[in-house]
Amino acid sequence: MNIKKLFPSQEEDEVIILVAREHWFFMFTRVLAWLIFVAVLFLFDRYAPQFIPKLFEAPYLNFVNLGKNIYVMFLVLGLFMLWTIYYLNVQIVTNKRIVDIWQKGIFSQRISELTLPNIEDVTSEVKGFWATVLGYGNVEIQTAGEKENFIFQSVPEPREIEKMIINQTGLYHGPRGNE
Amino acid sequence: MQDFNTFNPSTLTQTIVGFVFYAVVVLITFFGFSTVFVLIKNGRSRALSFAVAVLYLVFFLTIAAQGVGILNSI
Questions:
Q1: pTM exceeds 0.90
Q2: CA atoms within 13 A on the CB side of A33
Q3: Structural domain includes residue B2
Q4: What is the ipTM of this complex?
Q5: Which of A24, A81, A159, A121 is nearest to B39 (CA)?
Q6: Which A positions 126-145 lie with beta carbon below 8 A of chain B?
Q7: What are the pLDDT digits (tens) for A104-147?
Q8: How far apart are CA A6 and CA B30, in angstroms?
Q9: Domain, as residue range, for B28
């Protein structure tokens, strides 16, 4: 697979330790919402001929088919955009920094970076029924100074990610952590 | 004899429906191609990005072609 730079400022010798993405459950709920719109189309095909039979006779039938065609085009585009935004939203931990790439929409992207020496504390939180069952949660990274805290939202295995970041910060600061 | 209560597609109707259809297709093309561009530009794996983009384009072009066929039959 052709892997390119994950973020613009990635250095040649920078090692990617972790790439985290929102838990699949959130993509699943979005797909479920999308499936409701798909179901509307099937329900229309199933019940509309009973209640509005005239719509399914010439010359209206062609207009109905054209309407359904446009609807399907929007459905396919919607699913494609949902997946793209999900795929492009990533949090990356390297041996030098933490990067949060937030793809808000197709035309809106925000990249925040935090170098390891600026990390003060890391907290993981698993809250709620589904989070406990499926094992996702938030990881909050507190920063030195007045910088905004980093939050990895709804990532899988938050405790493992927390440990990994703490280990990485320790490695960066040296064995005694006082470098 | 012409029954004025029945709806008969005229040239004007075809023009309006055609205009609306192509306006929607242009709109969807814009957002679809923008998404393809952003995905290929920012996606981590080029192979996966290309595969998904091609899959979308095949679906989109097939459905759009079907729409043009329906439009011609109006």
A1: no
A2: 9
A3: no
A4: 0.83
A5: A81
A6: none
A7: 999 999 998 888 888 888 999 999 999 999 999 999 998 887 77
A8: 26
A9: 11-73
- Partner residue facing B45 (CB), from A1, A101, A109: A1
Domain total for chain B? Answer: 1
Distance of alpha carbon A140 from alpha carbon A11, whole angstroms: 25
Banded model confidence at residue A177, pLDDT cuts 50, 70, 90: very low
Please indicate, yes or no, if residue A158 is contained in any of the structural domains. Answer: yes
- The reply to whether A10 falls in a domain is no
Q: How high is the mean pLDDT of chain A?
A: 88
- CA–CA gap between residue B43 and residue B46 (Å, rounded): 7
Let me know if A103 is exposed, middle or buried by CB neighbors in 10 A (0-12, 13-18, 19+). Answer: buried
pLDDT 10s digits, A76-111: 999 999 999 999 999 999 988 999 999 999 999 999
Number of structural domains, chain A?
A: 1
With respect to residue B39, please indicate whether it lies within any of the assigned structural domains.
yes
Confidence of residue A168 (pLDDT cuts 50, 70, 90): confident
pLDDT digits (tens, 9 = 90+) for A62-81: 899 999 999 999 999 999 99
The CATH number of residue A81's host domain is 2.30.29.30
Q: Do B44 and A69 touch (CB under 8 A)?
A: no
Sign of CA dihedral A105, A154, A112, A145: positive
Residue of B nearest to A102 (CA): B42
